Write the structure tokens for this entry.
Amino acid sequence: MRRLSLRRLSMPAAQVATVVAFLGLWQWASSSGRIDTFFFGKPSRIWSELSDWITTGTLWTNLSHTIELLAVGYLAGLVIGFALGWLMGASPMAQAILEPFVVFMNAVPRIILYPFFVVWLGFGPLPRELSVILVMVPIVAINIATGYRSVEGHYLSNMQAQGASRGHLALHVYIPSLSLWVLSTCRVTFGLAFQAAISAELITSNIGLGYLAAQGQSRFDVNQVYAALFVVTAVAVVVDFGLVLIERRATRWMPRPTGTA
Amino acid sequence: MTSKASTKLELTTHGVQPVTRNTRGRRFWARTARVLIVVAFVGAWQTIGTRSPVERLTFSTPESVLTTLGRWTNDPTFWRDLGITLTEAVLGYLMGVVSGVVLAAVVFSSTTIERFLRPFVAVFNALPKVVLAPLFLLWFGIGISSKVYFTASVIFFIIFYGVYTGMKAIDVSLVNNMRALGASTVDLTVHVYAPAILTWIVAGLRLSFTFAILATVLGEFLGGTEGLGVRISLATQQLQNNVVIAGIIAIALVAVLVDRSLVRVERRFTRWKLF
């Protein structure tokens, strides 16, 4: 028993040790002048940058903006994409009309529209939110339209045989099964929304985590870039972990395909 | 619900579906509606754009965007910019694919390495890779190399993760059967792993190449001297919105053209789906 738990602990120990050794080596090499701190920075300087951000409130101002941008963009993109996908799934006519546009939009790297949004809507949060929404909508719409069509026909027939109205079908069949589609793809769609938010903040912005990184680049301050990178990574990991839990909870009852882990 | 019996079938994007008079009529009206939507959009844009000087500056007009695009077709500097953007995207893509496949193979070959790297891979997978762009620009300057490396890093994670999960999804009985019949690791690589990886790369080609173009343009936008991203970035600063929109349309056209041709490649390769 004891040997087993020791073995189980050895891997996390090795991982932590690697990170610590890496940081130690980096610090030593940069302070002894073995590597150029202009390019590679210095862990202690990154740390002081981060604690500066915390004490001056820079961290919170920029972090909360990025989070707000993500929340607004993600939810709005989800709602609009859901509505569009529902329309395309429910009406073959709407599908025939809209599908080429949605597929075209999906093939275009939509972030590049952001500069146009800036000229149009100014430097506020609106153009950034619009680009996150635009990244989300086609993907969600395509997913939902596919999901709508893949709802099992005999559920619908059974419900209709028992006298269910369209409203009943929507409430008890479509909304639950489509929500599942949304939940099971939330990690991918959130990743894309995050990507869009950071890109927009990098390109032209005066606030947000992406802006902190871009500012570090224009100041030739690699430590600031690393600090911004660290915060973005932390946010990404925390959110991703939460989404894994949601995804697992949402798909727990589903039969798992055998043979795959 | 199209459960009506019909002898004629057609292959649509949603699988095989019966052709009825209904679908034919619908197709005609859908086509008309699409043309009307495009015409209405362009018409509204032209009207808004010519209403006042401010709106002309903000939205430009379809006319002046088309003029800009037309001028570019005779402009060697535009083709040069396009060539540079595409070169960066393709080079970055290839570098990303090669390094991604190699690392996935190394990680896959040993359970210890796999268990060791798992948390690091999870962290990098969650990270929005675009945030690395400033770092690459600091490291490699504003020339072509910084975009190539940045694109490569974005593609690397997509390919590594995809190939890795693809290899894990290979049917164990397939490998065991081959082993039982006396196959060596080389045989397994040639007959099982390599086709599986290739299928996965081709299947992910469309998605990942769009990302490669996006990463390249983003890198150029943040700091560069040549390329379509630089063109748009300069025009944004000079408030020349007809050039901004023309540049966006040019990139969109390139992305869609590449996507359409990759659909063909994908179809050719996934006709025999093994894994």
Observations:
- Residues 255 and 261 of chain A are 13 Å apart (CA to CA).
